Amino acid sequence: MSKPKRAAQRWVCQACGAVSSGWFGKCPSCEAWNSIEQELPPPNPGERPAGSSVVVASTDAQTQVDSQPRRPCGLAEVDRVLGGGLVPGSVVLLGGPPGIGKSTLLLQASVGLARRTGIVLYASGEESIAQVGSRCARLAASHKNLLLMAEQRIEEVLAQATDRIRGAAGQPPLGAVIVDSVQTVYSTAQDGLPGNITQIRAVTSQLVAFAKHHGVPVVVVGHVTKDGQLAGPRLLEHLVDAVLSFEGDEERATRLLRATKNRFGSTQELGVFEMRGDGLREIANPSEAFLTHREAPAIGSCVTATLEGSRPLLLEVQALLAASFGNPRRTCVGVDPIRLAMLMAVLDRHAGLFVLDQDVFVNVVGGMRLSEPASDLAVLLAIASSHRRQPLAPGTIAFGEIGLTGELRPVPRSETRVQEAARLGLKRVILPAAPKQAARALKDSLDSLHLGASVELRFARSVAEAIELGFA
Ligand code: TYD
Ligand code: MG
To answer: Does the C-beta of 95 come closer than 6 Å to ligand 1?
Structure first.
């Protein structure tokens, strides 16, 4: 009897995923040592006869989408980041460093999904049923449709899921599958330990095939290291439909959910949570949570309105100038250091504030990042306030992009920003001067919300004007 023909073998770098034709001590692609392992090609998923693919006119394709409504989980922050809920047949990767709260978030979302859409199968490769169960009890997140499973073999997870597609033994049909985490499950058809690139790729392609074939959404957890350096999830990003990242730091309870890739929605939305003893709590009004409530205005502080997707967010920027010994240092948290250097130069040249010889510290309160140029003016005013040792007028908020000639440039969606400031009781808004019509429209939009009388709009054309208005 002849030996069965072995399909072509491949050698794959476990660090970068590069495929080579033979073994190397050092990967030719990423130069990692001892990272190349032999790998069998994935099993053939079953040949389909040529011509069996479905071809649809683009005008008719929409009806296919409409016939499969999104499945919201009921946590408004998660649903918004997803673009309105899970899309049937999609695979979502939830990434984040270990211990940030991914499992907690998914359990809370799963129970909401189970209530709304039917069976949710939560497969954990990390924790026993007892561990997940006790967490469910602590979070008050249990429901008869939320099924728990402690399993590391992906084939077994998918077999259990397939059995429940149409609903078995009086149960509703399958609404979603959760796999926690992709690093701890493995395919029995592949060699290698769970978590290596071959396994991660095999597991993910099985999940993608399952989701697409049965029209069931799948959410899979992926761990990333603090600097996002693990090869697995990077490679995973190409295979899945959406990548959500769950961020935050250990010292703070605030957690942020963002989409870094989303085939079905915007990647601009931000979800904000607080980690508490009884799980994650949604923060529907992040502006309130991030603002410091003070009796009197503080020196070196300025509030700005930034946009996170569709939502405005008020954040406080703080600055401190200190006498420098030797080379002046610029230390900033949450602000781009290059942008800060530019603002310091503009202050020096166009506002006559000599700050270049001092140490500067800038911090955005709440561990947030200001990435929009619209926050330039607030950073500048906070520095000016520290320099003058004088607080800004009480209830001031400022936004505007600053140019190198010291001019203040208009920013998108001023109304949204001004309305959020008014809603939170801030009284003075310093913003870039706008043409008469635009300024009128802005006032009208405030009037329509009955906020026109409580907010004073102070338009400035230049940095010097903004500083004058800020301290008047
Ligand atoms: P977990 O969801 O296990 O993180 P991940 O799955 O991302 O590794 O959450 C881990 C941390 O969250 C843990 O250190 C304790 C904290 N936590 C709370 O503060 N409150 C809670 O109700 C829960 C469940 C966890
Ligand atoms: Mg976990």
So the answer is: no
Coil vs helix vs strand at 447: helix
Domain over 289-470 is classified CATH 3.50.50.60: no
- If one compares 286 and 346, the residue with the highest pLDDT of the two is 346
Q: Starting from the CA of residue 106, give the closest ligand.
A: 1
Q: What is the pLDDT of residue 8?
A: 63
> Do 94 and 246 contact (CB within 8 A), yes or no?
yes
Question: What is the model's pTM?
Answer: 0.78
Distance 158 CA to ligand 1 centre (A): 26
Among residues of the chain, what percentage have pLDDT more than 90?
56
For ligand 1, atom 11, the nearest C-alpha belongs to 99
Cα torsion through 446, 449, 451, 453, rounded to 10: 80
Is omega for the bond preceding 181 within 30 degrees of 0, making it cis? yes
* Residue 102 Cβ contacting ligand 1 at under 6 Å: yes
User: May I ask the CATH architecture of the domain 68-284?
Assistant: 3-Layer(aba) Sandwich (3.40)
Q: Are 71 and 110 in contact (CB under 8 A)?
A: no
Please tell me the residue having the least CA distance from ligand 1 atom 23.
Answer: 279
| Span 159-176, average pLDDT | 89
Domain chopping of the chain, boundaries: 8-41, 68-284, 289-470
Ligand nearest to the CA of 277: 1
What pLDDT is recorded for position 226? 63
